[in-house]
């Protein structure tokens, strides 16, 4: 995956510049994993605004050139994870930092991103109800983490995440194993590539206000991510 320090720094800076509601890099990593594992492909135009948590608010993208740069960085990351899961799944590792003070794995931000992806197409994920035991268990493990993270965010010490077994200290290999199990199921049922055709920003890729939005929504840029 494109996880070199220089690339991640540029991606992190681009996301931070979008405002305090934009995803962190670790959250984006979980989000991308969820998008790629979803039983139903999701168009970029349907998920890109989620990266900066845009609802009906003004877009944080300042102009077409800015949109192209940000989209290119995000899609480059998305494609790098897609290629890893498709061609070299044994190399996949979720982006999970370690707290320098406690030495504990910080997985909550990553799982928030994964949860955001499942929220986009909840009906599609229901197909896993009929999946094999290993696949169902992998998805249940990730759902456990989502519920635990939600409970922690609510700061409710007495709350228990339903009747699922508590998984309070997952490790990176455990999460990676669940992702790879779900990836095998997804590819077995939908072997089509999930990569997105996109090139780096260039003169040929510059977008005018009346051109189709680079996010793939089908709308004009000024009526989509260019709205202010």
Describe the structure.
The protein has about 230 residues and is mainly alpha-helical. It is built from 8 helices and no strands.
Summarize this entry quickly.
The protein is 50% helix and 0% strand. By secondary structure, it is an all-alpha fold.
N-end to C-end Cα span = 34 Å
The value of Rg in angstroms is: 18 Å
Strand proportion: under 5%
User: What percent of the residues sit in helical stretches (DSSP H or I)?
Assistant: 40-55%
**Multimerization state:** single chain
Q: Judging from the principal axes of the Cα atoms, what is the shape?
A: globular
H-E order: HHHHHHHH
Mean pLDDT: 84
Write down how many β-strands occur, each being a DSSP E stretch of 2 or more residues.
0
Q: What is the count of DSSP helices, taking H or I runs of 4+ residues?
A: 8
Task: Give the class from helix and strand content and strand pairing.
Answer: mainly alpha
Main sheet makeup:
none
The poorly predicted ranges are 200-205
């Amino acid at each position: 995956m494109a996880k070199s320090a220089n690339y991640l720094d540029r991606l992190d800076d681009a996301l931070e510049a979008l405002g305090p509601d934009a995803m962190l890099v670790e959250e984006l990593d979980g989000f991308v994993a969820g998008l790629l594992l979803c039983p139903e492909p999701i168009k970029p135009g349907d998920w890109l605004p989620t990266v900066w948590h845009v609802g009906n608010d003004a877009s944080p993208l300042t102009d077409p050139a800015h949109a192209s740069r940000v989209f290119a960085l995000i899609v480059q990351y998305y494609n790098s994870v897609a290629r890893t899961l498709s061609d070299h799944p044994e190399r996949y590792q979720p982006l999970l930092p370690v707290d320098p003070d406690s030495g504990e794995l910080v997985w909550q931000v990553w799982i928030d991103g994964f949860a955001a992806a499942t929220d986009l197409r909840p009906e599609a994920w229901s197909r896993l109800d009929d999946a094999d035991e290993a696949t169902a268990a992998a998805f249940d493990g990730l759902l456990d983490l989502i519920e635990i993270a939600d409970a922690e965010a609510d700061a409710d010490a007495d709350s228990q995440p339903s009747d699922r077994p508590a998984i309070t200290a997952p490790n990176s290999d455990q999460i990676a194993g669940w992702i790879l199990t779900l990836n095998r199921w997804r590819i077995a049922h939908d072997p089509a590539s999930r990569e997105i055709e996109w090139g780096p920003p260039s003169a040929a890729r510059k977008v005018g206000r009346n051109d189709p939005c680079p996010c793939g929504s089908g709308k004009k840029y000024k009526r989509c991510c260019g709205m202010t």
